[in-house]
Every structure is written in structure tokens, then in C-alpha cells.
Amino acid sequence: MHHALAFLALSQLKGFGPARLNLLLQQCEPDGDDFYADCLRYLPQIPGLNAQQVQLCCQRIHNPFHGEWKERDQLLHWLAYDQHQVLTLGHADYPELLQQIADPPLMLYLAGNAELLHQPQLAIVGSRKPTIEGFNDARRFAGALSELGWCITSGLAEGIDAAAHQGCLQANGKTLAVLGTGIDRVYPRSNQPLYEQIYYQGLLISEFPLGTAPRGHNFPKRNRIVAGLSVGVLVVEAALKSGSLISARLACESGREVFAIPGSIHQAQYKGCHQLIKQGAKLTETIQDIHEELAHWLQLPESYSSSSFGLTTDSSHFSSNGLLSAKDSLPAVGAFSTAKNQQAVASNQSLELFTGHSHSADPSSSNMASTPDAYNPNLTAVAIKQKAPSVPKFDNPQQEQLWQAIAQGAGNLDALVMATGFNTGEISQNLLMLELSGRVVQEAGIYRVNLSV
Questions:
Q1: Residues linked to residue 282 through DSSP beta bridges, in sequence order
Q2: Is 91 exposed, middle or buried (0-12, 13-18, 19+ CB in 10 A)?
Q3: pTM for this structure?
């Protein structure tokens, strides 16, 4: 605890950024027995710092439990909760990849499963106001990649970030959310259910002190952590001045892979992606494009190949839209051990997220697995369309339009506003009526149609 409070004192020292921190760490070993004594000795020697503030910082490092200190009291109260912790730069558990960036954060506030920091991560970023197509692409890529073993990292913003987190969680994957606020603040407020689900099924991360409100200049700073934690960054939709391009640039500067999904030349949301591709980002149409660059990070069995997940490079297996086609099949079950058979099951789910078809794990069976009438969280909008459910009767045209939009993958309020053009008041009122009638259900902030009604 003393260590965390010492770094809290350092983080409150104005003008004490990465450059001055490096000067201090050249003289002080964070995990060393003499760290505090070394700090007290060398800190006053660092040029450019306010002498009075340095004196107060040294007092707090020497005796962190003495005197009034509001931020200390807030931190101790916050740390009393389950799965809350603070990680400091130089600590043995500090993420190695993040430590390699030019200005790693001094402190990380963590809420959730901190072990995920050391799992292979892929960042998915993009527009806060994506098209429906972009929203669905982010959700499907996140779900399929998580089934391959990737943790999905993003920034919990509205739009592409939220879609990536949702897609990962719907596929029972693990996701990390890097906040641009204090870890005890939720922004935007509409992501409160998603924030809570990530706390229980993933990891929330922030470098900002408790209580920090959303401020515009903090979000680009947050992006360097998203990129720094990840071995690659996938940009789904981004305008030319998008913050997602900052993440891509930082990833490139740190030697990470950058991927971008192309789109229409007539839509501003894709111009940033097209610029990245011109600058050397990999044009990405399928998860195969990502997997072939980064599969070595997953530590898969030696006999594993990308074909185990239907990720073949044979162009005959791809449909005209670049996604895996329904005729893909899996290796014979007899060629796998029990563990590898489980990989084949995961493969079916990955393919389902792209094509809307369920595949039998046994290639000797040409019949697709039957789909129950009840909701299957792995179904995509394509699958819902192919089932051709009978459209129920509605009280008004607005409810029918909302139901159709949800059936096509618009799962949250922002997506429904874009899909229907209704204002949030109209949407909220009609969603309530749809929920009461059982035609629509909500789980963890995501709306879906109830096909059993």
C-alpha cells in the first residue's frame, strides 16, 4: 500500500511527466528496498519542479498516512472493494508491452480481472457515430476474434468501441476497456450496463485519478494505452480527423500491426481507413487477414493451423463480400484430441458470427445444425433474416420499425437512432412497450428480438 501511495504522491506533482520520471527511475529502483529513501534523496535534485510541491510530495512519500490528504482517502476507500487494485510503473505485474511505449502511465487503476493484462490483446477502434454496417462489422469481428483466443481491447466510447466490447462479451470472450475518465466514472452514461458487464467479465482500466470527469484532452491520452496494450489495432470506421487514427499512429510508432477495413469512397467514415491503407496498414476483409499476421501470439498447439477455424487462404472459400462462405468445413473430428475438438466447436461459432450459418463439427454430415426458436446469442442479423420469422403485430409503425432495426443488429440506443431516425424519447417509449409485450428483450444493455413470441 505504501508503494501505491508513493506513486500517487508522485502523480500529483505538477510537471512530473515521463521525462522526469525516467530521471528519477535511473536513480531509484521501484521494486528495490531503498526506493522511498532514494526518492526522498533524488527528487529535490530534479530540475524544473516547484520546491514547495516537491517538499509536500516527499513528506507524503515518507509518511503517507500522516495529515490530511483527500486523494489518499479516496484511493483507500476505492481499493477496499473486490477486484480493485492499482498497478505502478516498474512493478513486476506491469504489462510489458505497455512499458515499451514512449510515455507509459505512472499508475493504472484496475477493476476486474487483472490477469487479462497479460493475455494477447487486439484493439478494435473506430467512429463514435458509425454506420449500421460498421457497427455490425466491429461486433462480428470482435466476437470471432475472441473465439480464436484474443482479448479485445477498446475505449468504451459509443459507436465502434461499444460494438467491439459487446461482440466480444456476446461470444463469451474477454474484453478490456480503457477509460478516458477516472475509473469510477462512466462516460457516456448510456454505456453504464456495458461498464458493469465488463467489470464482471473483463477488465476496466484508467490512468486518471479517481473522480476525473470526461475532458476532451484525456481521450487522445487514453488511446496510447489502448494501442500500447495490444499487439495490433483494427480500425473499423474512421474519418480523417478521427481519434482512431491517433491510436493507429501510436500503434505503428510502437511497432504494432495496424489493420483497416475499407469501405465506400463516398462515405467520410471510411476516408481515415483508406488513408491508413495507403500508408501501409493491412487491408482487412476477414479475420484471416488478421490471423495470418498475429497467430503466433496465441501460443496454439504445434499441429494447429488456421484451417482449424475455417480460415483458409483458398479464395474459393470466400464469398463475394469477403467473408467466409457457408461451404467452409472443418477438419475431421478424429484428427483432433478432445481439446482440439473444443477448438472445432469454437470454430463453428466464429463462422456463425460471419455467415449466419451453423456448421456441423463433423464434415461427414452435410446438414446444418438446427437452430432453436429461442434466441441464440451467436446469431447474426443474417441468421435472423434467414429464419424469416413471422413479423408480429405492433401497436404503431414506430414499434415495427424499431423491431426490424433490432432484428438487423441495431442493439443499443445510438444504433437505433441511426437506423430509424427517431429521437431518443420516441425510441425509449416504444422500446418500453415492446419489452412489456415480450417482443423485445434486453440483456446487459443490448436489445434483441424475441423470436419465440
A1: 259
A2: middle
A3: 0.66
